[in-house]
Amino acid sequence: MRVTIVRKPIKNMYLRIKPPNANIVVSAPQRMAESAIERFVTERKPWIERARRAMLQARDAQIAAQNASEDGFQRVDGSAGTGMAGTGDSGFHGPSDDPRTYPHTFVWTDANKARARRNIESQLPTLLAKWQPIIGRGPTHITLRVMTSRWGSCTPRTGRIRLNLQLGLMAPRFLEYVLVHEMTHLWENGHGEGFQRRMSAYLPQWRQLRRDINRHVVL
């Protein structure tokens, strides 16, 4: 397995499987011996392999479903493709790291970026007209961009909202949920009781929507 070690001023080690390509990342204390880190990872190898397998399978299924009728992807080598691209892994390999086992990765191209942007921009006017009167505040600016770890973000001080471009390749209910979530942050900075109370008033099914969207992998 190839493991990325990040040294931090912390007391304990933390292990994370990072989407979309199931990279293994260990956060470790700055003076932790490498032998201790290796032992920490080795002891958790069965869980790591299960988690990586589940994430990669979910990613591939998601890509295939979103792009079954599209030709907006390309192979890493630049040749025409079917939405999948071969990956070459480096470092030491275990059974779950065999590139032949997980041959697919996601590549954003100009074509699918444009398609995602069109899909979002076509929905935003109706969504904003619906939700600004309900929430009582609206964004000063909305930016669409590729994100690697989140669906959206908000800066309450400026009123600026950023949305993951991937939402334009997903079911419309997810764009609506993320937009309402970020607009709620125009009132509430965190995710405490005030935020949850507002979300329940605006979008009673928001917890189910959160569970559903979190079954997807951020690409």
Strand order of the largest sheet: 1-3-2
Number of strands: 6
- Please state roughly what percent of the residues sit in beta strands, choosing from under 5%, 5-15%, 15-25%, 25-35%, 35-45% or over 45%: 5-15%
Alpha-beta classification: alpha/beta
Oligomer: single chain
| Alpha-carbon distance between the two ends | 21 Å
Separate helix tally: 6
Main sheet specs: 3 strands, mixed
Write down the secondary-structure element order. EEEHHHEEEHHH
- The chain-level mean pLDDT equals 82
The residue fraction in helices comes out at: 40-55%
Write structural notes for this entry.
By secondary structure, the protein is of the alpha/beta class. The protein contains 6 helices and 6 strands, in the order βββαααβββααα. The protein has helices spanning 34-43, 45-66, 110-135, 172-184, 193-202, 206-213; strands spanning 3-8, 14-18, 23-29, 141-145, 152-155, 160-164. Strands 1-3-2 form a 3-stranded mixed beta sheet, with helices on one face. Strands 4-6-5 form a 3-stranded mixed beta sheet, with helices on one face. A hairpin with a 4-residue loop joins β5 (152-155) and β6 (160-164). α3 (110-135) packs across α4. The two termini are 21 Å apart.
Write a concise keyword list for the protein shown above.
219 residues; alpha/beta; 3-stranded mixed sheet; 6 helices; 6 strands; 15% strand; globular
SSE inventory with pairings:
Layout: E1 3-8, E2 14-18, E3 23-29, H1 34-43, H2 45-66, H3 110-135, E4 141-145, E5 152-155, E6 160-164, H4 172-184, H5 193-202, H6 206-213
Parallel strand pairs: 1-3, 4-6
Antiparallel strand pairs: 2-3, 5-6
Helix pairs in contact: 3-4
